[in-house]
Design brief:
26% of the residues lie in helices and 26% in strands. The protein has helices at 2-29, 112-115, 135-141, 175-184, 203-215, 232-239, 265-273, 288-296, 320-330, 334-339, 343-348, and strands at residues 31-42, 47-56, 59-64, 72-77, 82-85, 87-92, 121-131, 149-155, 189-195, 219-222, 245-246, 276-277, 365-378, 384-398, 401-405.
Length: 435
């Protein structure tokens, strides 16, 4: 009896080990989804080559030169296309729920899911539409309801961007309240915003920096009004800290090119200090006469962003793919454009879990065609630039699920589906009588 029991136990132990090995092998060789045949550009991991991307449980599982289609439940062919991390747009306006007409925090904002996935964007940062008085309303009515990953910067002004007027009162600029909310909502708050201040003092910037220091987060400054008492060069060389962000970097009033046709030295000094330069194209904040020579001089923006709102999306800016394409035709290599639209902005907002395709990271992926033809681009002041290339978003995955599929690559040929596909409650369908 003892020998039989011992033999049985040995057999059961071997069976369990075998089943464990089979389970492990199954886990290692079976994927939920496979993107096959694309050209992967993942700047964080210095990847720029043909490769297959495997996804399991909503995360990147493997990137290899070739993965057998039989190892995946579903395979999507992306031959001839580029595969990148989902885009991270760190300057958008999403506070649509105030119901106020003509306001950035109101009817000028857009709902995130309406415009993100179709443009390859999986992460958005609202750039200060709400302030410390109404941020929690913004969170409850917009951020927590979106499929898009939404982060936010809190405006140093109490009511954010309801109108320019509410951003002019220093008594409403409360670093203590902004920092308190940033700590309370640290899962979504990524920065402090100062914008549109029209006075000659530095109070808006200085109090935003004070809030940023207290909460341990960066500051983004929209230097909307240029005055001789507070010149732009002083903002980026003295007032901003390392890691702080100057958005609208290519606005018309920004001094970029000196009499010798070179980038002003103060910009290199600011970059050396660690200040970041964000595009924030918007409806009035990028002119080619600044951006083109800056790119030709090798001074690329740290992040490419849209300043997306109802005005800019229907004007020259249009969307992230168009804004990226502008820098592509200005002369930036595609890998550099992708870097500044994914991994760079992810680091700038201190969220290194996004913006790349590392194994184990969220499977936020964008798939692109790079069109060749004759294309025209318009800046924020009706300046035109022609180019031969244009990025077009073919597909977007958020957390491993297809969120946008322009050419239906994830779908099945209808002729291969059952004859009654698409019919619900077939037992209640009454056909007409036969003639």
């Amino acid at each position: 009896m003892g020998l039989r029991r011992r033999s049985t136990m040995i057999w059961m132990k071997r069976l369990l080990l075998f089943l464990a090995a089979v389970s492990m092998a199954y886990a290692q060789t079976n994927y939920d989804l496979l993107l096959k045949g694309g050209h992967v550009i993942d700047p964080k991991n210095n990847l720029d080559a043909l490769a297959d991307v495997a996804i399991r449980d909503g995360k990147i599982a493997a990137i290899e030169p070739s993965i057998e289609a039989t190892r995946a439940k579903k395979t999507i062919q992306v031959n001839g296309l580029y595969v990148t991390p989902g885009l991270v747009d760190i300057h958008v306006h999403l506070f649509t729920t105030t119901g106020i007409p003509g306001a950035w925090a109101g009817d000028n904002s857009i709902r995130p899911d309406d415009f993100s996935f179709r443009t390859g964007v999986t992460t958005m940062v609202d750039a200060g539409s709400s302030g410390w008085r109404n941020f929690e309303t913004f969170r409850h009515t917009v951020i927590d309801r979106a499929r898009t990953r939404v982060f936010a910067m809190i405006n140093i002004a109490g009511f954010g961007m309801l109108t320019d007027i509410v951003e002019q009162h220093p008594t409403e600029m409360r670093p203590d309240e902004v920092a308190r909310l940033a700590r309370k909502h640290k899962d979504v708050v990524v920065g402090v915003k100062a914008a549109h201040y029209q006075g000659p003092e530095w109070v808006s910037v200085e109090r935003a920096v004070q809030a940023g220091e207290s909460a341990g987060i960066p500051v983004m400054v929209d230097f909307g009004y240029f005055l001789k008492e507070r010149p732009y060069w002083q903002l980026v060389t003295e007032k901003l800290r390392p890691g702080d962000i100057s958005t609208h970097a290519f606005r018309g009033p920004v001094p970029w090119i000196n009499d010798s046709g070179k980038v002003y030295s103060y910009l290199y000094e600011a970059r050396k200090r660690g200040v970041k330069f964000d595009v924030g194209h918007g409806g009035g904040s990028l002119v080619f006469r600044n951006a083109v020579p800056a790119v030709k001089n090798g001074f690329y923006p740290d992040s490419i962003s849209t300043d997306l709102h109802t005005g800019s999306m229907n004007a020259g800016m249009m969307d992230m793919p168009t804004t990226m394409s502008k820098f592509l035709v200005m002369g930036m290599p595609l890998k550099e454009v992708v870097l500044r639209s994914t991994w760079n902005p992810a680091q700038m907002i201190h969220h290194p879990e996004v913006g790349h395709l590392t194994s184990g990271s969220p499977a936020d992926v964008a798939v692109w065609s790079l069109l060749d033809g004759n294309f025209g681009y318009v800046d924020a002041s009706d300046g035109r630039l022609e180019g031969r290339q244009r990025l077009h978003c073919e597909m977007t995955l958020k957390g491993g699920r297809v969120a946008w599929d322009w050419s239906g690559r994830a779908a099945t040929d209808y002729r291969q589906l059952p004859p009654d596909y698409g019919v619900r409650d077939i037992e209640f369908i009454v056909p007409p009588p036969k003639p």
